[in-house]
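TASK: fixed-backbone design
INPUT:
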């Protein structure tokens, strides 16, 4: 019983990733060029499960050579938008593209003057319409039996974000010694210290 459910969930997410790779890859070039030219930081904004993914992506970008931070969408409109500068790029994450907490940040982001990127499967959503750039996902099915819980959508966001972080890191010729500078602790830090002696 459990094994069948697990296999179904993995297959749903695997198929979504395959579709993302096969039909949506052309949109990444422009986003990578934009981020490479950024003189500020990449700011991930999300709420709920998208917020958790945004936190992880900010950490991955930062540790691989692209300075980033996360702002919770609710806290953003209660003063934390003051952390963002015109030279930054804001990445707004919402599967539906109509999450009110996310949409509410856009007017101030526009007044600040930073560029905005939507990460969404809502191709005709408010978020997709209002942001300067967008990463669009295929129309997806969530992996749980109710097809409601953020599962496939969270996975696609994570996969796309990780892939962009990896592409930027390679383009910047980010090396092991650079990774060690930002990640001196843990088993990775120990391993790298031995390698770069």
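OUTPUT:
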């Amino acid at each position: 019983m459990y094994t069948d459910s697990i296999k179904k969930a993995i297959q749903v997410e695997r198929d979504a990733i395959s579709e993302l790779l096969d039909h949506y890859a052309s949109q990444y070039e422009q986003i990578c060029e934009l981020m490479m030219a950024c003189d500020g930081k990449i700011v991930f904004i999300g709420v709920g499960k998208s917020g958790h993914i945004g936190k992880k992506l900010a950490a991955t970008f930062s540790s691989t050579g692209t300075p980033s931070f996360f702002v919770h969408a609710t806290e953003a409109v209660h003063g934390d938008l003051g952390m963002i500068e015109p030279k930054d790029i804001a990445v707004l994450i919402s599967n539906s593209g109509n999450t009110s907490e996310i949409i509410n940040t856009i007017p101030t982001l526009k007044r600040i003057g930073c560029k905005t990127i939507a990460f969404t499967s809502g191709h005709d959503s408010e978020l997709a319409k209002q942001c300067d750039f967008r990463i669009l996902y295929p129309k997806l099915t969530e992996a749980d039996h109710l097809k409601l819980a953020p599962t496939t959508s969270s996975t696609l966001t994570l996969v796309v974000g990780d892939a962009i972080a990896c592409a930027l890191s390679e383009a910047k010729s980010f090396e092991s010694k650079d990774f060690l500078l930002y990640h001196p602790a843990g088993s990775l830090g120990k391993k790298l210290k031995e390698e770069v002696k």
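COMMENT: Strands lie at 42-46, 68-72, 89-93, 115-120, 133-136.
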